[in-house]
Amino acid sequence: MVNEDFAADAALFARLRAVWERVDPVPADLVDRMVAAVAVEDLSREYALLTLVEGSALAAVRGETDTATLQFSDGQTTVLLHVTATEGGGRRIDGWSDAEALAVRVVQGEREWSADPSEHGRFAFEDVPPGVSRLRIVVRDAGGELKDFQTPQFEV
């Protein structure tokens, strides 16, 4: 009796599914959109989109030094960094933020450097040693609230 009920239920659900597939089919890109939505939802606030705008392959055209331009965005705040090698082997980092930057730091493990941003969001670090780094900025968003903007780690 249980098997007959199960078979009847399965047949009923199959007919119901067929009706819905005909009347309101699943959009072709739904799975991709859902995977993207879940991936975005799972991101920690410290991670931002990293886009390599310009790399050292293009730097050879300009001169002997290595340069890179990096852009980070979390959808509300965008930061642009220009990294150049110094003669002493360190790195100069010039940056700009489109949000009102109140404090800017470069972090490498336990080491940290601070810069005072200008009123237009510009900041610079003179001689940062090469290595894996992260930028942390305290910004005031459009609503006036303070927010901690952090980039993913990047190599300088």
Give the SSE layout.
Blueprint: H1 2-23, H2 30-42, E1 49-54, H3 56-62, E2 67-73, E3 78-85, E4 91-97, E5 100-108, E6 111-115, E7 122-128, E8 132-140, E9 146-150, E10 154-155
Antiparallel strand pairs: 1-2, 2-3, 3-4, 4-7, 5-6, 5-8, 8-9, 8-10
Structure overview:
There is one protein chain. The protein has helices spanning 2-23, 30-42, 56-62; strands spanning 49-54, 67-73, 78-85, 91-97, 100-108, 111-115, 122-128, 132-140, 146-150, 154-155. A hairpin with a 4-residue loop joins strand 2 and strand 3. The chain folds into two domains: 2-42; 49-155, Immunoglobulin-like (Sandwich), CATH 2.60.40. By secondary structure, the chain is of the alpha+beta class. It has a five-stranded antiparallel beta sheet with strand order 1-2-3-4-7. Strands 5, 6, 8, 9 and 10 form a five-stranded antiparallel beta sheet that branches. The longest helix has 22 residues, at 2-23. It has three helices and ten strands; from the N terminus they run ααβαβββββββββ.
